Amino acid sequence: MSPRKAAVLRGDDRSLREHLIATAERMLAEHGTAGLTVRAIAREAGVADGVLYNHFADKEELLAHALRAHVRAVERELGTLPEPGSGDLAANLRAYIRYGTALHRAIFPALAGALASPGLLASFTRADGSGDDWRDRLVHYLRAERDLGRLAPDARVEAAAEMIVGVCHETVLTLLIHGASREHHPEQVSAQRTDDLVTAVLNGIAPR
Predict the structure, then answer these.
(1) Which long-range contacts (CB under 8 A, 24 or more apart) does 35-43 make?
(2) Cα-based angle 33, 138, 95 (whole degrees, multiple of 5)
(3) Once rounded to an integer, what is the mean pLDDT over residues 5-24?
(4) Does the entry feature the keyword Cell cycle, yes or no (predicted)?
(5) Is the pTM here over 0.85, yes or no?
């Protein structure tokens, strides 16, 4: 006989572990990780405090999975990225830059509190080893374009990816330094700044 399902999950296809992750993900998406306690998560999930430790080593592990789930949810809302060999190369890079800045902007409220918790960040890094986050997809995309001959055969694609990722990280750092006011938090990177970055990545800055 299969074990009896927890009352809070009756009529729900999810496991209790999935329910706890979903609950924590919703809470950190709304309020961030700062001050998010085991008791608050358990109360919101409708379970006893100690239940969390039946499924996770500690609060950091639960929040790491919740943060990863939040990132995945944001990525689904952002849609698909260009495939190697399709369309115009410069236009594809602009799409990757827009996607990356939108992703970082969306996850910043949830991520900000995590920066003060090295344990949470370490657990977050370990939570998903699929190599399928936005940065990894960007590197794989550039490598594929190089293999297809649409980039120079000796193109330093990892360095190019770091330049693009750096722009997105700069957005987060600006928010940390200046606060999350709209004055320092534009809706998107300007078209001119995006074009300048794409030109620098594709053409370099040395004289020809």
Answers:
(1) 35/113, 36/63, 36/113
(2) 90
(3) 74
(4) no
(5) no
Q: Using CA atoms, how far apart are residues 73 and 103, in angstroms rounded to an integer? A: 10
Token pair, residue 151, equals: 């980039």
Residues in the chain, how many?
208
Distance between CA atoms of residues 164 and 141, nearest Å: 13
SS (H, E, C) 103-120: HHHHHHHHHHHHHHCHHH
Go through the domains of the chain in sequence order and give each one's CATH number: 12-203 (1.10.357.10)
User: Would the CA dihedral through 90, 73, 140, 101 be positive or negative?
Assistant: positive
Under DSSP, the state recorded for 205 is S
Angle at 206 between CA 201 and CA 208, to 5 degrees: 105
Distance CA 43, CA 203 (A): 55
Give exposure, 58-71, as e/b (b: 16+ Cβ within 10 Å).
Answer: ebbbbbbbbbbbbb
Nearest to 128 by CA among 61, 37, 191, 182: 61
Residue where the block lists tokens 């952002």: 78
Reported as type and span, the H/E element at residue 142 is helix 134-147
At 115, is the pLDDT very low, low, confident or very high (cuts 50, 70, 90)? confident
